[in-house]
Design a protein that fits this description.
This protein is an alpha+beta fold. About 40% of the residues lie in helices and about 30% in strands. It has three helices and six strands. Strands 1-4-5-6 form a four-stranded antiparallel β-sheet. Strands 2-3 form a two-stranded antiparallel sheet. It starts with 5 loop residues before the first strand and ends with a helix.
Length: about 160
């Protein structure tokens, strides 16, 4: 097995919701979308990874927006729910959610059509860099401990 210290997972979610936006000062009609939202999450590599924990956190987060008119749900009752505003808000909130379960959101991509996406990357943010350092330190300590244990076992033989 390869000895990478970190793993990156990509999750894809579909959010069925409606919205209306303001164009040229006029409120448009409420219309539905199936938004595709992709999350790239970095975690410390472990012997066995229960990545469904990260998936559940995101699924639970999106549940409150599923089948809703976004204009009626916070914060989009005061912020125009454009694709950019939706992805920016979701990214900020999901970064906090993922950190609580030991992951770090690196990138979020949202699409309202198959040909158009909006992407936010957090790879250059200080808190992301600090998370990666901590994951690396923790993983490296575990690798060194495993190597020392293995050396001691061989010596006992």
């Amino acid at each position: 097995m390869e000895s990478r210290l970190l793993c990156e997972y990509c999750f894809k979610f579909y959010l069925n919701a409606s919205h209306s936006i303001i164009i040229n000062g006029k409120q448009g009609e409420v219309h539905p979308h199936t938004w595709e939202i992709m999350l790239d999450i970095v975690v410390e590599r472990k012997e066995f990874m229960e990545f469904n924990e990260y998936e559940k956190v995101a699924r639970d987060f999106f549940a409150k927006y599923q089948e809703q008119v976004l204009n009626d749900v916070e914060p989009f009752d005061t912020v125009v729910p454009t694709l950019e505003n939706i992805v920016d808000y979701f990214g900020g909130e999901l970064r906090n959610c993922m950190r609580q379960v030991g992951g770090s959101l690196v990138r979020i991509e949202g699409s309202e059509t198959p040909t158009r996406s909006y992407v936010v990357s957090y790879g250059d943010k200080e808190d992301y860099i600090n998370d990666v350092r901590e994951y690396s330190k923790s993983s490296l300590t575990r690798v060194i401990d495993d190597m020392l244990d293995q050396m001691l076992e061989e010596k006992d033989c």
